[in-house]
Amino acid sequence: MRLGMVGLGRMGANMTTRLLRGSHAVVVYDPDAEAVANSAAQGAARANSLADLVTALSPPRIVWLMIPAGTPTETTIDELLTLLAPGDIVIDGGNSRWTDSKLRYARCKDAGVGFIDAGTSGGVWGLANGYCLMVGGDEEAVATCWPIFHTLAPKDGFAHVGSSGAGHFSKMVHNGIEYGMLAAYGEGFEILKASEYGYDLHQLSKLWLQGSVVRSWLLELAERAFREDPELASIRGYVEDSGEGRWTVEAAIAESVPAPVITMSLLSRFVSRQDESFSAKVIAALRNQFGGHAVKMEPVSTESPR
């Protein structure tokens, strides 16, 4: 099939490569000219603008977006709706909020344009292994794009999971679960590192991959990380969040579903961004007040007030 790919970051560029290897014709656009040139060198057709990209496609035009959630996605869809015609299809493969996807579906439907929200998982490994695709939208639009999904996904790695918003909702929860799993691995390895036994964390992570009940792809990545840097000395313990963990917690609250593990894993990421947690200072001060527990004092400045 012939389609357009907008956004050639780590995911979009690799997805373009996988599509080209699957004999699809891909027209690419990204504000980064070097990214466009890299994909063009692999056989993609260049576009200098969204208008160029749409012109290079034939009906039904299919445009896949792999760009940041929020305003970048919103403004791109706004512009595309001035360029596309009834029967064309927009696929949002980014980490958009599912409620935004439902609103975009309605706007596209009013213009006669199909809209598919495609929760996409696989990271930088998706080029070789394929991408897990959770797709929401109308049956007809999904059926039209099936050859694209079939190429991008591994065997049994694609499903039409429901109506508009279902793809991004399921990807949101998927990422919320990921938060909890990452936190559990992180805490476990920290306990091992702090113990008296001087564990070789690479050895243990590799061992656990051999039939252990905690083996997983994430553990494979942990084994790789410890192999490359046993003390993780080159990595600062600062953990960002994409927003999907927050949205998962909000959805849990809205549905009155207890989700303490995912919630605490999200909050622990906030703690990782503090040079020193003020809440920890409060706890230390209170322990000193009620129990006389020792506290570590900040160095006293000898500078004169300014």
Textual characterization of the structure:
With 306 residues, the protein is α/β, with parallel strands linked by helices. Helix content is 51%, strand content 12%. The protein contains 14 helices and 8 strands. The protein has helices at 10-21, 33-41, 50-55, 71-81, 98-110, 126-129, 139-144, 146-152, 166-194, 201-208, 217-228, 244-254, 260-272, 278-291, and strands at 2-6, 25-29, 45-46, 62-65, 89-92, 114-121, 132-136, 158-162. It has an 8-stranded mixed beta sheet with strand order 3-2-1-4-5-6-7-8, with helices on both faces. Strand 2, helix 2 (33-41) and strand 3 form a beta-alpha-beta unit. Helix 9 (166-194) packs across helix 12, helix 9 (166-194) packs across helix 13 and helix 10 runs antiparallel to helix 11. The longest helix has 29 residues, at 166-194. It starts with a strand and ends in a 15-residue tail after the last helix.
Which percent band covers the strand fraction?
5-15%
Structural class: alpha/beta
**Which oligomeric form is depicted?**
single chain
Largest beta-sheet details: 8 strands, mixed
Q: Percent of residues in helical segments?
A: 40-55%
Radius of gyration: 24 Å
Span between termini:
69 Å
Strand order of the largest sheet: 3-2-1-4-5-6-7-8
- Uncertain stretches: none
The succession of helices and strands, N to C, reads EHEHEHEHEHEHEHHEHHHHHH
